[in-house]
Amino acid sequence: MLFNSSVFVVGFLPLFLAGFALAGWCWGGRAALVVLLVASLVFYGWWRPVFVPLLVGSIIGNFGLVRVMRRSRARWRFWWLVVGLVTDLGLLAWFKYAGLLVATGAGWLGVRAPDLGIVLPLGISFFTFQQVMYLVDSYRDEALVCGFLDYACFVGFFAHLLAGPIVRPREIVPQFAALDGRVRRDDLVAGLEVFLLGLAKKLVLADSLARFADPGFRAAAGGHSLSLVEAWVALLAYGAQIYFDFSGYSDMAIGLARMVGVRFPLNFRSPYQARDIADFWRRWNMTLSGFLRDYLYIPLGGNRHGAVRRNVNLMITMLLGGLWHGAAWRFMAWGGLHGLYLIVNQQWRRTGWRLPARVAQAVTVLAVLIAWVPFRADNLRACWIMLRGLCGAAGVLLPAMIVKALPILRHVVTSVPVLPYLGAARTMSVVQAAALLALTWGIILLAPDIHTLRERGRNAALVAGFAFSVQALFFAPFARPFIYFQF
């Protein structure tokens, strides 16, 4: 079940809110949490009910392990932590990475890789990280002691179960414990506003931009060369698409939680307006960035052991962060690029030199866009084709109307009325596509994020966002899945 599907918006969500409020009014906050947990299991099982026991077993197993660890002597606590981490990460590795390891090994041996028939459970990357945090925080005595119902809702709440945000136990568990089951008007209205804005980001912006990004990357996957214009149209469209898609999902999750009085942390804060790559990671998928910093980079030693060790720790963190996104070497290439960017940024800052603000922003955006190529490309060969296109190695294609206005261009470019892999709609000209991308990127680079607008009381966009979202929701041929559902 997708947040952007009509069955969720007009079916599941109203029924859940009504059941939550009724249970809270009749029997109190504990009953309302039971409704929340049952609804979350129904939501999770809507795709494949067979994976519900996996989620339930993971929740019960980790909760029981934490209780045993808390009651154990100090010397045993570490080993209980190891058991929990090995079990959680082992399950994640089996479902997510076994196929990659088998395929890689078969490639080295020159034999055909067997089909393991493994289906990746939705959200396993996210609910595994949630439980890893609780295990580690409990070992450090930083997690609050809670009952099973609060813990199960912390892990399984449908608002963040499938694609985040990754919420800290100490931030969310006390909120579940304090819920009285009432649905307050202020929370409902505020949550609905953020949810609708997120829905508009997904349906109106992200899904429209996908029509420009997908054909270019699909052509590269098929071995077709891309011209300079084609490659940049596809990449600019994808850079904007993934931002609106994932930030839209995060906004919808934040809005859903707020409707029942739970406050999730922000996950995006105008990331493409960052002035350097470190600032980008303080703005992009902020909950994952915080997790990688606190539960991987700092335990590895952080920056406490000199510049060389810091750079190694940065690279390990980003490589593993890339691999977490998917079982493919291209994700490690994406993570490795960002690790390299962070190392270069550290060295640049040591020189004391500073670029003008807009120049620094442009360099950062360019670096991030280039890194999206291996992230989005189907394989490393397609990645190479796309990079060649971005450099103009396969030539330049411009629309006929531009060449007609500037005849001198006939000597340096090939003229076509519509780029063959631009795709979006066959009747849309390249000029129209360029205008759409220019407008979109102008908003991304210059406008404040939606939460800032909402805090300032500028809610006029809600009406338009709601109208467009409703039209797209009911008239779109199908609900396009969120990008991060694949991870």
TrEMBL record:
Lineage per the UniProt record: Bacteria, Pseudomonadati, Pseudomonadota, Alphaproteobacteria, Acetobacterales
Q: Name one GO cellular component term.
A: plasma membrane
The family database entries (PANTHER family) matched by this protein are listed as: ACYLTRANSFERASE, TEICHOIC ACID D-ALANYLTRANSFERASE
Is Cell membrane one of the keywords?
A: yes
- Name listed for the protein in its UniProt record: Probable alginate O-acetylase AlgI
Q: Name one GO molecular function term.
A: acyltransferase activity
Matching InterPro entries: Ac/AlaTfrase_AlgI/DltB (IPR024194), AlgI (IPR028362), MB_O-acyltransferase (IPR051085), MBOAT_fam (IPR004299)
Q: Which organism is it from?
A: Acidiphilium rubrum
Q: Which GO terms describe its biological process?
A: alginic acid biosynthetic process
Q: In which pathway does it act?
A: Glycan biosynthesis; alginate biosynthesis
